[in-house]
Amino acid sequence: SESRHYLPAGLLPSNCVVSSEAFAVYDGPLWQLAIITSKLHLVWVATVCGKLEIRYRYSNVLGWNTFPVPTLTDQNKADLSRCAEDILLARESYFPATIADMYDPERMDEEFPEVRAAHERNDEVLERIYIGRRFRNDTERLEKLFELYTKMTGKGKAA
To answer: pLDDT tens digits, residue range 76-130?
Structure first.
C-alpha cells in the first residue's frame, strides 16, 4: 500500500459487513469518495496516520475526521460526484481485474490508463477547489492542508 498513488476506496452494497480492519462511511455522498481517493487525501494520510511496518495505517479519527475540506458549493459536490463515478466506471471497464491489479504502481499506467486518467481528473477538480490550480508538489499540498487545519481547529486565531 505504501507505493500506491491513491487509496483504493470503493462502494459496497448495504448488506456487506465491514471488518474491524477496514473503515466505512455509511450513506455518505458520492463526492466523499472523490476526496478519499485523491492524491491530496493520501498525502494527508501518509503524514498524520502513521504506518504499520512501512504500509500506511488508515485511521478515520486521524485521517478522515481531521482532513480539512473547504466549504463546498453544490457545483463542487456535483463535479466531485462525477469524478467519483468516472473512477468507478474506469475500474469497471477492466473487470475482472482486481483493485490490487489496477492500483499496482508498476502496472497502473501501462495496463490501466483509464483508471489513472480518472484519478488525474479527480485530482485536478479537487485541487482547483482548494487553490484554483493543481498543486506543484506534495510539500505545497501539505502546507495548504495544515494551513486549513490550523484555521479549522481555531489555532490560527489571534489572541
So the answer is: 999 999 999 999 999 999 999 999 999 999 999 999 999 999 999 999 999 999 9
8: preceding bond cis by omega (within 30 degrees): no
Q: How far apart are CA 5 and CA 12, in angstroms?
A: 22
Q: Calculate Rg over the CA atoms of the chain.
A: 16
Give the C-alpha distances (Å, rounded to integers) separating 50 from 56, 59, 124.
Answer: 6, 9, 26
Nearest C-alpha neighbor of 124 from the set 87, 94, 71, 90: 87
Q: Minimal CA–CA distance to 89: which of 27, 7, 33?
A: 33
Residue labelled with grid coordinates 481531521: 66
